[in-house]
Amino acid sequence: MKVTKNPELKIKKDAEWGEIRDLTGFTGNLYLLDSQGEIWKYLATDEEFGAKQKWLRETANFSQAKKMMIDGSIWVLTQDGQILKFTRGIKDNFNITGLSKPLSEIAAFYTNADLKNLYLLDKGNSRVVVLSKSGEYQSEFSWSGINEANDLTVTSDDGQIFLLSGSKINTINLK
């Protein structure tokens, strides 16, 4: 049975927004990544969202931002492959160390509060790179088809990596 439901407008476009590049939920709240250098937080109430709040406590450059992940800290991936980490609204130092081959083209990344690692889809090198959340290289998974993937998700640190390639989904076992 097909059920069609009309979407309900929960948050109206706001005059302060620039271009919203990504949105994600965390602990029931909604976060919007704004190209003008802000992360807007909307607190969840019983059936609605409250007024927007600025999550950052300092200015940031998100003009090249493309994706955001939240695990308690907020991670931002930029068009040029930089990974920015913010904790409690302030930018953290995050540097990648221990790679045997430099990253080439980071198309996507993934983490969440349940994962101890950060997963990078490095299309340019046909691999998924696994980093600790402090930036140390842990491992990598290579396969020629990875260069066709455009997104990934991970079930848990000992589960699977799911790679989206157009209309196909491939998996890599982590163990």
Please tell me about this protein's structure.
This protein is mainly β and 175 residues long. The chain has 2 domains: 17-93, Beta Barrel (Thrombin, subunit H), CATH 2.40.10; 95-175, Thrombin, subunit H, CATH 2.40.10.360. It has strands spanning 20-26, 29-34, 38-44, 49-54, 65-70, 74-78, 83-87, 90-92, 106-110, 117-122, 127-132, 137-142, 151-154, 160-165, 168-173. Strand 6 and strand 7 form a beta hairpin.
Walk me through the topology.
Layout (H helix, E strand, L loop, with lengths): L19 E7 L2 E6 L3 E7 L4 E6 L10 E6 L3 E5 L4 E5 L2 E3 L13 E5 L6 E6 L4 E6 L4 E6 L8 E4 L5 E6 L2 E6 L2
Antiparallel strand pairs: 1-2, 2-3, 3-4, 5-6, 6-7, 7-8, 9-10, 10-11, 11-12, 13-14, 14-15
